[in-house]
Amino acid sequence: MNPKVDFYFANSEKWQEELRTLRTIILECELTEELKWGVPCYTFQKSNVVLIHEFKAYCAILFTKGALLNDAEGILIQQTENVQAARQIRFTNVQQIVEIASTIKAYI
């Protein structure tokens, strides 16, 4: 865990449990944790793999090159029509995250 990223999680008001659950799942994949663009970013060999974001209506993980993933589960969302490569998985509660934890790890 990265102390700079701890601050991000400590200051989350709405999605703390969800964000911590996502963090745990991602760190189990042995990625390096950094803070980029003001959000937790997880890298492999200095390449960005996945970010954790929070919004008013949901929290999400964003795969920076998600368009290249084989989305066998059909869970990746194109954030906006202008976003070409990145893909999101959105969550509104911890149970949703726990249910697909193994899929998240497989996608990572």
From TrEMBL:
Residue ranges annotated for the YdhG-like domain, each copy included: 15-108
UniProt-listed Pfam families: DUF1801
InterPro entries the UniProt entry points to: YdhG-like
SUPFAM superfamilies found in the cross-reference section: YdhG-like
Domain of life according to the entry: Bacteria
UniProt protein name: Uncharacterized protein DUF1801
